[in-house]
Design goal:
Layout lengths: L7 E3 L12 E5 L3 E8 L5 E2 L5 E2 L7 E2 L10 E8 L3 H13 L5 E5 L2 E9 L2 H4 L1 H8 L1 E5 L2 H15 L4 E5 L2 E5 L9 E6 L3 E8 L2 E8 L3 H12 L4 H9 L8 E2 H5 L13 E3 L4 H4 L8 H26 L5 E5 L7 H14 L5 E5 L5 H8 L9 E2 L2 E3 L43
Parallel strand pairs: 2-9, 9-10, 13-18, 18-19
Antiparallel strand pairs: 1-21, 2-3, 3-7, 4-5, 6-20, 8-9, 11-12, 11-19, 13-14, 14-15, 16-17
Helix pairs in contact: 4-11, 5-9, 6-9, 9-10
Length: 420
């Protein structure tokens, strides 16, 4: 069992960002993920209209020649189908003068935003026409891996397992991080074998992803969004639709290790019911869809991990799970079953922002500052909803927000501590 302590972690390096407040976008088929730095104090209003406290990360300067940055790193998301909401949000920030990086091109200043994902190409002209903004496109796979590696190395209690209703944080030693399989669940799914910083290979994937779940969900339940579908699933019972082992054998099939509640055929009961779609509860359909996609994802991920070097660490990223307990439980059960308990599924608290964070982090390749991460430490995020800040002799303190949807950081020098 890996170290469960979440008291401290070392960062090798993390270049920070200048006063031009750079932004980064990951525009996927279903969601737009946005990361931006600001010098504003206070709280960020999240997608639901609530003000929330933001995570604060103290970074110690490696040289007195560089300024101490004081601000926050914000994470926000929008539905791609409602891209105008994202455009409106960015426009409001442009009016405040807190968006984008200016770059000199042929004697003229040009607004630049780092962008990744398919939408970085699809919507480039839209952003240019509306704001005069040019996308500096970053490779999608490289951004995903860069974002994941940073979170796993730099943020205590980022990774966790979820079994039998219990979340256990896993502290991974950065020297023992690689190799691992990153399963990024977006509209479709990419499976990436990561063997080091900047060293990875997309070894497989499947079209059965979040887009499949939402697409079928919209057809069968008339849900309006992914979150609507998840909410429906809370109240559903897949046993009304799925054919179980007990439906075939009358009990379990212990000889080959199948319990009575194991799904033998997703949606299998429908073929015998002689009912129309309107006769089924949409909540039951949502639950069955969720179980079907999650079960198959767990099996495919485990088989790919074994095929490519018997990888014992499988990390699930992307916006699919949304910290939804039933999804995580189903994936975990699947990996546990197929590996005979030798491998555990791991999840990330900031799962949906890997690509955006990786694209944002790519600013460091262009010499934007030189802040070196020193010691980051935190109180356990489950100990209290809002731990108190305190100065530590070996460096600043990392204080976690309990809301992973609205995370940010405050970048400070070693001789400064911000209180909120």
């Amino acid at each position: 069992m890996e170290d469960q302590s979440c008291s401290s972690v070392e960062i090798d390096d993390f270049d920070s960002y200048d006063h031009n407040s750079p932004w980064a976008l990951d525009i996927g088929g279903t969601l737009i993920k946005l990361v931006y730095f600001s010098r504003e104090d206070g709280c960020l209003e999240n997608s639901f209209g609530n003000s929330v406290r933001l995570e604060e990360v103290g970074l110690e300067t490696s040289s007195k020649n560089y300024p101490i940055l004081d601000g926050k790193l914000h994470f926000k998301k929008f539905q791609t189908s409602k891209i105008n909401e994202c455009l409106d949000f960015i426009e409001s920030k442009l009016l405040q003068g807190s968006c984008c990086r200016h770059q000199e091109v042929s004697g003229k200043k040009k607004l630049i935003i780092k962008a990744t994902g398919g939408g970085a190409y699809k919507y480039a002209d839209l952003f240019k026409e509306k704001f005069g903004v040019t996308f500096d496109k970053e490779d999608e796979m490289n951004s995903l891996v860069s974002g994941a590696n940073f979170l796993l190395k730099a943020v205590p209690c980022e990774a966790f397992t979820y079994m039998e209703g219990r979340k256990d944080f896993v502290q991974i030693n950065s020297s023992d991080l690689f190799p691992y399989l990153l399963v990024n669940i977006g509209s479709g799914i990419s499976m990436i074998k990561v063997v080091g910083d900047g060293k990875f290979e997309r070894v497989s994937g499947t079209s059965l992803g979040g887009g499949t779940l939402l697409g079928l969900g919209m057809l069968l339940t008339k849900c309006q969004s992914f979150d609507d579908l998840l909410e429906m699933s809370h109240k559903g019972d897949n046993r009304n639709i799925d054919m179980l082992v007990s439906d075939i054998y009358g009990s379990d099939y212990s000889k080959i290790g199948l319990s009575a509640r194991t799904i033998a055929s997703s949606f299998g009961k429908v073929i015998f019911d002689n009912k129309e779609l309107k006769d089924y509860k949409k909540e039951d359909i949502a639950r069955s869809l969720l179980r079907m996609i999650s079960n198959n994802l767990a099996q495919i991920a485990y088989l790919i991990a074994m095929w490519h070097g018997k990888l014992k660490r499988i990390i699930f990223g992307g916006s699919f799970t949304r910290s939804h307990e039933y999804i995580m439980e189903t994936i975990s059960d699947g990996v546990e079953y197929w590996s005979k308990g030798e491998t555990k599924a791991m999840f990330l608290r900031h799962e949906g922002f890997l690509g955006a964070l990786g694209a944002f982090k790519s600013y460091e390749k262009h010499g934007l500052g030189s802040l070196m991460g020193h010691h980051l430490s935190e109180q356990s995020p489950v100990a209290s909803p809002r731990p108190q800040l305190e100065q530590k002799s070996n460096g600043p303190l990392l204080v976690e927000s309990t809301d992973a949807e609205s995370v940010g950081c405050c970048i400070l020098g070693s001789d400064t501590m911000k209180r909120t």
